[in-house]
Amino acid sequence: xxxxxxxxxxxxxxxxxxxxxxxxxxxxxxxxxxxxxxxxxxxxxxxxxxxxxxxxxxxxxxxxxxxxxxxxxxxxxxxxxxxxxxxxxxxxxxxxxxxxxxxxxxxxxxxxxxxxxxxxxxxxxxxxxxxxxxxxxxxxxxxxxxxxxxxxxxxxxxxxxxxxxxxxxxxxxxxxxxxxxxxxxxxxxxxxxxxxxxxxxxxxxxxxxxxxxxxxxxxxxxxxxxxxxxxxxxxxxxxxxxxxxxxxxxxxxxxxxxxxxxxxxxxxxxxxxxxxxxxxxxxxxxxxxxxxxxxxxxxxxx
Length: 302
Description:
By secondary structure, this protein is of the alpha/beta class.
């Protein structure tokens, strides 16, 4: 399905805080991180989510204002608190509880802003664990009649296979990691014998996807285009990892830039890999210094 690249992209899904045992709170959520980077790159996204009438919600609204983000799609939910992930440490290893029934689970379909049709729409899968937000996304898709970038985020127990299949059937482009690809590619269930490329091809053919993007951790990433050609990219040189959280979100934001600006796919992959490598060298999934983005914008142009 086509889209209008002159329209600001739409980003739908969760915004939340990771809360650590020492009291530290880190703002994030994959869609929010993607919207944050797109804003820094000048794409002016419309972020659609919900926050509670609470101090955490106030912090999110203030951060968006400070970053110059459009808040017309950010709903206030008086009945549900702002999203949180409770991080605990057991034997030095972190574990995560993605707390249920938060504001972003209850995005109101009737409260969606009126938007011009045709904008590229990005969403993940976590925020669709609850019926209200699923209904809101469905309403948005019906209104927009647009191309959809699906960023798969399988977080147990907050997903089910039938729902993922419906999302894949509606998607134009899909990004997922190697484990998710092996799990979802139709002909690879129960088998690890197929290559990543063959798994991507099986997924693409089954769901009629334009592009399948697969992130491969330290090995980089690959993309299978509409003609069935595989493009691959790997990190250039040694990457000093400070914090890997949010690397995939940074990668996705540049993939979207490539679609908006019509960059060739190999160039898009190289730029996405370069940006993700820079993100892992910083603490946290978002960077609050606009100067961090200046070099990328200068090198990449429109």
